[in-house]
Amino acid sequence: MTAVGIDAIEIRSGRLRLDLAETFAPAKNEDPEKYTKGIGIEHSSLPDVYEDIVTMGANAAKALIDRKGLTPDDIGRIDVATESAFDNSKPVSTYIAGCLESVYDGDFHHANKGERKFACLSGTQSIDDAYNWIRAGRNRGRAALVIATDTALYERGDPGEATQGAGAVAMLIDEDPDIVALSTEQGYGSADETDFLKPNQQFPSVDGKRSIQVYLARMREALEDYESVAGDTHPDSFAYFPFHTPYPGMVRKAALLGYRHITRDTDIEEALAGDIGLQPRESDFDSREGYEEAIRAYMDDLKATSRYQAWYDEAIDPTVDVSGQVGNWYTGSVHLARLSALRAAAADGVDLAGQRFLVGSYGSGAQAEIHAETVQEEWRDSIDPIDVDDQLATRYDLSFEEYELIHDVHNHEKEVEVEAFTQPEAEFVFTGWGRMNERR
Ligand code: HMG
């Protein structure tokens, strides 16, 4: 069976930067380490006045098309994953296609375009749709362009404000991919939840503490479902575990629970029993009275073992590196986690070809999806040219007052005019709500 997966990736970060320790923490009268250590975010990316989900998505897509030397005829499908859409009828992919058609010969008239929504999960769902379309043989030899693009903004004063971010990840899904091939096996954990939602509102209503529990519960269900089709997982079977990263502190919790789950009944559990004694069973994690304290103590002990810490440092920490520099990109977040791991391996000179990732995607509302990916021979040549460092280093540093202004500019309910903080550089820019077709 021919491999299908991710053939190319490009990102576009919002061009502004909020420093959580230097700028946000003093204004909120908080200890900077709450953000840098507890939550794990040093900087958030935010869009300048001429950027939005369309321009960031179109700019990432253009970089990808140019690098791969594609023409519009090579692309048979454009799916945009977003939870920041401003149009309840026209999908964001049509706006992005319009931008791209203004700079290329040819058009996307025979490409299937859509918009996918399931909170942060829909980037992965769009990849799944593209995978199925190619596997079904309906693609006529063409590839699919998947663009995950969001401005993750919270009401000012909401605890989620510290986790904001903005950016787009464009990915080409194709046969014989250069970066990773996707597994056929998938696992899901899905339930109707109301801890994070935006019913006819721009900013989310969030029960932050509960959202953490819902994330962990759905991820665990998805992992169990994945194992029911793919067999038991083992920590050594995967080089990295990229998870949806609303903030790195969330991944620290998910990793600990995941590790406990995948080491059960293995040689590692046996060794851990020697290290820390207590061995609560899976059923103990259902929060039954009397067990809670023992489980918490066990998890604290587990976290402190050198065995767990070595695994975390190797298999998890590299996946949250970029996230800690940009904040939550919602639909793009798990795809940044994958990219972050690939970049770390490239920087360390590790040859990942043939190694596997276990990818955990999540969207509030709520659903988790787990699948495996196998890194391809050409991965390094595809990852090296992505200008992540450059984009992050050239962001404009906002003062707190400027941050509040730009937050208002992107609040659809306010009409605030502010000069741009940066200069566009041969890119698509937002030219105004009344002139949707004039994006250049
Ligand atoms: P909070 O309540 O202000 O923060 O906001 P906190 O008091 O819980 O502190 C956060 C962490 O920092 C804690 O660590 C503290 O101990 C630590 P933990 O106990 O959790 O390991 N801390 C410190 N560490 C070092 N030095 C200090 C210090 N002070 C505290 N001085 C909250 C946290 C997550 C509630 C908030 O950011 C929030 O509401 N975020 C938005 C919701 C969210 O991101 N939820 C995550 C799961 S849901 C999800 O991922 C989906 C999502 O992406 C949306 C979608 O799918 O569309 C959000």
TrEMBL record:
Gene Ontology process terms (BP): acetyl-CoA metabolic process; farnesyl diphosphate biosynthetic process, mevalonate pathway
Keywords: Acyltransferase, Isoprene biosynthesis, Transferase
Domain Hydroxymethylglutaryl-coenzyme A synthase N-terminal: 3-175
GO molecular function, one term: hydroxymethylglutaryl-CoA synthase activity
Coiled-coil intervals, chain numbering: none
Stretches assigned to the Hydroxymethylglutaryl-coenzyme A synthase C-terminal domain: 195-411
Annotated signal sequence range: none
Record SUPFAM superfamilies: Thiolase-like
Similarity comment text for this entry: Belongs to the thiolase-like superfamily. HMG-CoA synthase family.
The name this protein goes by in its record: Hydroxymethylglutaryl-CoA synthase
Native species: Halobellus salinus
Higher taxonomy: Archaea, Methanobacteriati, Methanobacteriota, Stenosarchaea group, Halobacteria
